[in-house]
Write a structure and sequence with these properties.
With 438 residues, the chain is an alpha/beta fold. It is built from 15 helices and 17 strands. A hairpin with a 4-residue loop joins β2 and β3. It comes from Microvirga lotononidis.
Length: 438
Amino acid sequence: MAAPWFMFATGIENSYPTIKNGAVRVDELDKCGHYKHWRRDFELLQELDIRYLRYGPPIHRIWLGQGRYDWSFPDQTFGVLKTMDIVPIVDLCHFGVPDWIGNFQNPEIPTLFADYARAFAQRFPWVQLYTPVNEMFICATFSAAYGWWNEQLSSDTAFVTALKHIVKANILAMAAILEIRPDAIFIQSESSEYFHADEPDAIGHAEIMNARRFLSLDLNYGRRVDSEMYQFLLDNGMTRDEYQFFMTHRLRQHCIMGNDYYVTNEHRVAPDGRTWAAGEIFGYAEITRQYYERYRLPVMHTETNLAQGLNGDEAVTWLRKEWANVMRVRNSGVPIVGFTWYSLTDQVDWDTALREENGRVNALGLYDLDRNIRPVGKAYQLLIQRWRRVLPTQSVCLTVPIIPPSQFESAHAVSQQEAARNLSQAAPTSPTMADHAG
């Protein structure tokens, strides 16, 4: 009953940070027309033969207050996904929280968000795959280090505060979901970064940044951070008790490490610490190898895209390049279980990282906003057709124990959940020595 080991996926772009000191909510589900065209968007998945969808309900429209929810939209959308037997990877928090919570400086966020995650899992018990908090490192960086979104702060203390609240929220949400769905699988979609020293005097800055990029996953997986990062955390507001929480809450056995990679993920570093885009130097395969060697978890390529470009073929070329990188990762012995072109449709205003409301359409999707297929959509459709037949025959042992929605109440599904519950109760409550290695 386990699903074929490789998940070809796409996603519905659902970012919703606030800007202008919280006065404006940037809602990509609205800007990209999903509220109006959601039925058609799901039909597009069938046309592409995509069975896995990164999909997040709009938390700011659903979560009205503590213990108060409006489930009307997710009841409709998730009801149709279940009927279509599409497996959602549910994205519960994508760069923003409801207005009544404020922003990521709020220390109550972790426990409040765990309540929301539990309520969602109770409402939709057939959902098995989750990304509780999307791109935790990017969310903390853009909100509290760069000053772009939400709290719009720019300090190390604000960054550490946001980061510890975001990661703790992710951990508590995983624990809450596991109470309802003991065989839940968590796919951490996190940006994979690398910082290149532009000259010898920049090496020190680059080394610090290359240690800092791991902070969210180190804390999430209970891996001891590097000594310099430990001092950085404590100097900027994390207490020893808070750090110990992350080291003793061990849920990594339920996780797949999702690595997001774009052409903007590699950076050049100047001697004064300034950074700017480096373009693709190492590429997805090399950077993913670095993350895999640190965490030793199954991997999924959870986001990538590139604009169609003036020639009309730039996105297709990037798709082929990323797929070649996925195959290189796989052939090197890393257990990679999926690939995602993000997103299904074009996006709006991501050329300014959602900081400005210009209404500019970014041609990044498999379809445009009129729901016409783009060349990269046709290329991805063909790639799926060709490789879906081949990959399972090359790895008959590696599978992900996914229960399709249509089989949620089957005897096998019940047995799998019971086995997962028993394993969870028998699992050690503290990290092993391997979790602290490095």
